[in-house]
User: Fold this.
Amino acid sequence: MQRIFFNFILALEGVGANRLRAILTALGIVFGVAAVIAMLAIGSGAKQAILEQMKLIGTNNIVIEAVVPQEEDEITGGNADDASNKNSYTPGLTLKDAEAIQQVLPTVESVSPEIVLTTSVIQSGKLQRTRVIGVTNAFFDLNNIEIGQGTFFNSYHFDGGRPVCIIGEDVRAKFFSEEEPLGKLIKSGDTWMTVIGVLKRRMAKKENLEALGIRDYNSDIYIPIQTALLRFKNRALVTKAALRQNTGGDVVMSDEEEPSATERKEASNYHQLDRLVIRVKNSDNLQATATVIARMLNRRHEEVKDYNIHVPELLLQQQQKTQDTFNLVLAVIAGISLLVGGIGIMNIMLASVLERIKEIGIRRSLGATRSDIVYQFLFESVVISLLGGLLGVFLGVGSATAIANAAEIPTVVSTWSIVLSFGVAATIGLIFGIIPARRAAYFDPIKALRND
Assistant:
């Protein structure tokens, strides 16, 4: 051990005597290690972002969204791009669709229907336009939403359309900043409702919500779905404006009964529900279940495709595969950088051996063994590599931070990536230093002493 330690001290002295050369030699390792750390930080950040998105949408979910025809559509709930549907009739997305999916498909675990209404909310003289969402308790489970204060809805609240609501944290901060909201009344549209719960604030980035098409749950008011249908609006009911629009103006009405442009626009949305979220028991059955649901709805809607079906989890999995491919490319680039750095170390060490032949001869003549010479030059190579690794870590962490700030993408620098970088740097020093070290050790001492 003493001999090994002595050889290590000699190696440090050799590196110290040629500091500029050592730093220049280590540059390849510096950039290689920095590239590895930055790459892993970007990959970890992207993975974390996707996991956060998975939490937002829930797992094993299928989302069905109602398609509202544009003002120029002349069909009743049809698709303006499909001329064959011009005179078709469809009841739209309804609670009966949700019940049928739940009852017929054994792969379905739960179904969450949603009705989205935008209305004026008043409380204590404060007025604001807010979304009121008609839901069942399955909504909170499927979207991983927790209650902060109070309780979720129970069977009593769903019976007869009780005027109760659960509010998001932003709504609480807006209308109940100076008092406890539970048990208080808040007016939505023409209906006074009692607050029975406040959702726990859900931290989510705005860009993630927009990318996934998810509402900000903190700023909404939630009511039982029966309450939405009985006390607010049931679009499945036929109105004069809807009848007028859907018959092309053949129904005779007086001027007073003539619907306004706003009424005609609202009447064009004939869907009872705005959205259905379906959770499948097994993720392996996601695609197959979505296909069966599409066929079922197509049949129930009289071959009119007035809905969109998408599987967010499959889209995110595809995004993850793309990100993995990108990370692999970055890893190859980083590996090439480290390889070039290792070759640079070997070249400089070979040149150093040729310059120090006389030193090697003197050491051998004074009793140094071939192992001592190997250890000396091998230690020099490892020290240069570790020096490059240390500088590379600082550069890599700084690069990851700069990328996160400049490109506004998440980066996560983990401890294991730093440890891995040091391990790779030390390994490169050993691998690319062994050839110069062995070459130095096998010089003939007599010829080495004669070298000028």
